[in-house]
């Protein structure tokens, strides 16, 4: 793809698209505001920041609050991504740069994931958490997808970087192609975590498997070392959920601000039936990876005996996979969790990082049933929520249905779970807002210019 014409526009009139003429303002306060805008639009002061994400909307959404903060501070922002993410980037009000082609999940990988999900507990353990060997399989499978995405994106990212000349590249932590482009171009880069812990440092063997997966691509571009660290890592994970972090990597704490996509407030979100309201979800990646939403259907069937109201959140195209539901069940397709979770008393989910983070900011208890097909991360998330007193962990796939119903009764009837959930809200609120990180990123870009 060619970005020459785009670059020519910027070179012809640098900053003109945001220039403000203060003489048009009649009031002196307005004039001062106009002067400030003009100052921020000056190309010697405003940064060009390229953000990048891969594969799924859940990988892009955590970047949005920081992108908005950068734009509000007067900086130019572009988001580079695979084609599939185009509508999500544009719906967030950000400028989209399509690079490479979409990664397709391999049919063999999907069959293996489905088999691991339905295989049942290993003999003698009574547990479904993956063994070290099984976990290594899941990590390698995931890394193969991210390495594939990096290979598809790298050349276009490098080409666009040469034309647009960003001062800084911010990449979600599994967008390895953006880190590679930053290294090739000599541009400072920042690694952005999701709302969960840094699994790269917390799960044994992850770094070695990451290096193994990425070395061919990095070598192809003349890079001897595979260390996708960036100059620092933005960490939106509250300390209660985080691993012990190494001193060898610089972390910049940030408050997690949920963004689950654009949506519309609907009347049902604030009108309650009087019954406890329970949210159900397996996130947005499960359908893409597994090809089904069977856990959601299972949750609905198991909870049918309880006198509760259920809101089942499913991704685009997921309603028909859930099937027919009763009058106390609402299937909310493609509805952002952040819009309705505050109206709920409890959420039951799979332990995905984005879901955990959004539930955490909503201040409601969580019941987590991690699927073994997604490896160790959901189990870690569940354990940390339990340790914080904000929820319980169950195994819906292999425990008796009554155990989930008992867990729901226990959480709804025990005030301490709500107290634990509110404690996590306060822990998150104590961290710096995305806007407070902008000056640190300006410093990084400024050192690069000097």
TrEMBL record:
Domain of life: Bacteria
UniProt KW Glycosyltransferase keyword: yes
Domain Erythromycin biosynthesis protein CIII-like N-terminal: 68-283
The UniProt record lists the keyword Transferase: yes
Keywords of the record: Glycosyltransferase, Transferase
Gene Ontology molecular function: hexosyltransferase activity; UDP-glycosyltransferase activity
Signal peptide segment: none
Disordered, as annotated region: 111-132
Designated name of the protein: Protein IroB
Species this chain originates from: Nonomuraea aridisoli
Lineage of the species this protein comes from: Bacteria, Bacillati, Actinomycetota, Actinomycetes, Streptosporangiales
């Amino acid at each position: 793809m060619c970005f020459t014409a785009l670059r020519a526009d910027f070179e012809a009139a640098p900053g003109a698209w945001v220039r403000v003429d203060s003489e048009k303002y009649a009031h002196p306060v307005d004039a001062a505001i106009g002067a400030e805008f003009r100052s921020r639009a000056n190309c010697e002061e405003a940064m060009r920041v390229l953000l990048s994400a891969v594969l799924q909307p859940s990988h892009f959404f955590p970047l949005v609050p920081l992108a908005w903060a950068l734009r509000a501070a007067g900086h130019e922002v572009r988001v580079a991504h695979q084609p599939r993410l185009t509508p999500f980037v544009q719906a967030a009000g950000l400028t989209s740069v399509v690079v490479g082609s979409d990664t397709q999940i391999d049919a063999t990988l999907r069959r293996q994931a489905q088999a691991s999900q339905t295989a049942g507990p290993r003999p003698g353990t009574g547990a479904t958490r993956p063994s070290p060997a099984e976990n290594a399989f899941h990590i390698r499978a995931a890394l193969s997808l991210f390495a594939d995405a990096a290979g598809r994106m790298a050349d276009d990212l490098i080409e666009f970087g040469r034309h647009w000349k960003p001062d800084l590249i911010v990449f979600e932590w599994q967008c390895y192609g953006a880190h590679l482009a930053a290294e090739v171009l000599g541009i400072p880069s920042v690694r952005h975590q999701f709302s969960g812990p840094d699994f790269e440092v917390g799960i044994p063997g992850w770094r070695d498997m990451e290096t193994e997966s990425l070395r061919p691509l990095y070598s192809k571009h003349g890079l001897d070392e595979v260390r996708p660290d960036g100059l620092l890592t933005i960490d939106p994970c509250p300390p209660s959920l985080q691993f012990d972090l190494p001193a060898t990597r610089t972390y910049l704490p940030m408050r997690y601000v949920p963004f689950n996509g654009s949506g519309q407030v609907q009347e049902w979100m604030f009108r309650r039936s009087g019954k406890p309201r329970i949210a159900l979800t397996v996130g947005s990646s499960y359908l893409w990876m597994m090809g089904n939403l069977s856990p959601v259907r299972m949750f609905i069937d198991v909870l049918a005996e309880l006198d509760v109201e259920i809101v089942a959140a499913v991704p685009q195209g997921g309603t028909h996979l859930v099937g027919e539901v009763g009058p106390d069940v609402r299937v909310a397709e493609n509805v952002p969790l952040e819009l309705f979770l505050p109206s709920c008393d409890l959420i039951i989910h799979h332990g995905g990082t984005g879901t955990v983070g959004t539930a955490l900011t909503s201040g409601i208890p969580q019941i987590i049933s991690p699927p073994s097909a997604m490896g160790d991360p959901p189990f870690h998330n569940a354990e940390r929520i339990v340790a914080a007193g904000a929820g319980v962990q169950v195994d819906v796939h292999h425990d008796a249905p009554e155990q989930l119903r008992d867990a729901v009764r226990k959480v709804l009837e025990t005030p301490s779970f709500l107290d634990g959930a509110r404690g996590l809200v306060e822990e998150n609120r104590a961290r710096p807002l995305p806007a407070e990180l902008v000056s640190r990123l300006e410093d990084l870009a400024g050192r690069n210019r000097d």
